[in-house]
Amino acid sequence: MKMRILQSLLLFFTPYFLIAQTAALRGQFQGANGEAVAFANVALFNAADSSLYKAGNTDEAGRFDLKGLGAGAFFLKATGLGFADFQKNDIRLEDGSQADLGVLTMAAKDLSLAEATVTASRVMVEIKPDRTVFNVDGTINSAGSDAISLLRKAPNVTVDNNDNINVLGRAGVLLYIDGKRLPLTGDDLTNYLRNLPAEQIDRIEIITNPGAKYEAEGNAGIIDIRLKRDKSLGANGSVNATYSQGRYHRDNLSGSANYRNKSLNAFATAGVGDWGGYMNMDILSYLNGMVQDEVNNNRNQGDYYNFRAGTDFFLSDQHTIGFLVGGGASTRQQTSFNRITLAPENTPTAIDSILVADTEADHDRGQQTYNLNYRFDNRKGRSLNLDLDYGHYKNGSERYQPNRYYDASEQVLLTEIVNSFNTPTDIDIMTVQTDYEDNLWGGTFGAGAKLSRVVSDNTFLVYDVENGLAVQDDRRSNRFRYEESVYAGYVNYARSISKKWKFSAGLRAEQTDASGDLQAFLPELQEPPVLLNYLSWFPSAGLTWELSPKHTLSFNGGRRINRPDY
């Protein structure tokens, strides 16, 4: 009996790994003469409501491969330079299916010069040497959505049912906002992205192999979410309101204002909203001769607000000073009903015992960020940028966790273990960064330095609850303080060797000084701090060969490092 209790509790406390969306759709676009339609935009839409489901692009051979898809009915659209728009309907995918559409033919687009009109617009997906750009502003994707929903649609990005973000199938991607690292992971990151309205996003840049200019951390690349910044002269503003209804509702009210003249640009955005959601899971497990039939019903609801305001002062045509402040807060209430029945594997209908674990949790998140920026640009290739940043992130979480073990009738209580948890976290991040670029020997030379300091203060308090009275468990409670200072410098150089050959190379050095201090509540559990001190070198290089205006081969390589999560 005790072994089965332990097994059940272990199963409950083990994170639930849902089966990710594993369907894929591939094919190849060719012209009427069999030529590859390279670097065309490819978009998959839901057949039910014509909403964008996933965006992508073809490679130099005209092939495309959309991964991380779910089951359903879809239609496909494609656009390519010099070709008429293409659409294929009646596409059905099943869970785990790998559908291949084969060769798809795009007709040449006839253009009468007498009727030609030149217009300027951004394509949805841009392919650049070091990144893929998913343009959001001005498209239907910027209405009634949030950042994590946009990432699900972005090319080369997959987001599974647990909201884990992968790029090209690799985990550990770093999230940036306007070129600044976002020091959040797990539920904290998910909540931030859910509370960032798509109306505030200009574009998403997926950088699969960052160069020496970027931090060396992370082996899956960088996703940089660029927010809107109006460059129109005069005053303007907008207000957006969205509402969606499923089993529960989600609504958002956001607005932006901008004023710009020859001397300054002042801007502000703000948003507020609330949401509700649920997740139901049924899990059937076979373990050590036992059958565990588990039912999980989770209900979530929350609210949030965010703001961002700044001013740029144009001291001259070449000198600009800017100030930026941002912040926000969110709350989330979670209730979960979890029930596990245990039975022998050879007689699964003969229930042996039942574990019931109903959980209540409250989470609150808050952040403030500040930036001071100076930029010099002589419009001839020489530029200097200086950034001073400070960010404070405050996370709180309280959870009530009862585990009650009953007999087969669910009337007799066999064992009861009730715990509550209080786990606040405070993170402070300070950075100073400077970047310089200039023309040199027919190419572009860049150099820069960065100093960053992080202090992460984490308290983990566990309480044993008996007869409604909570008593702190000092053996399982502790406080952990992590401090990290990184001193970095880099140089890089890029130029064209010929009309068809280009190369880039860089070297980054990072000196890391870090300490981790676990402060136990019992003297016998106290351990000395862990100290880290090391210097690391991170080379990077890239080479591209332009076979034709539409065909390019590239090679990129570099060394990177993983650091502890905040």
Walk me through this protein's architecture:
The chain is mainly beta and 566 residues long. Helices cover 5% and strands 62% of the residues. The chain contains three helices and 31 strands. The strands form five sheets. It has a 16-stranded antiparallel β-sheet that branches. The protein has a six-stranded mixed β-sheet with strand order 8-9-14-15-12-13, with no helix packed on it. Strand 30 (530-548) and strand 31 form a beta hairpin. The longest helix has 12 residues, at 2-13. The protein is globular, with a radius of gyration of 27 Å.
Fill in the keyword field for this structure.
single chain; 566 residues; mainly beta; 16-stranded antiparallel β-sheet; 6-stranded mixed β-sheet; 31 strands; 5% helix; disordered N terminus
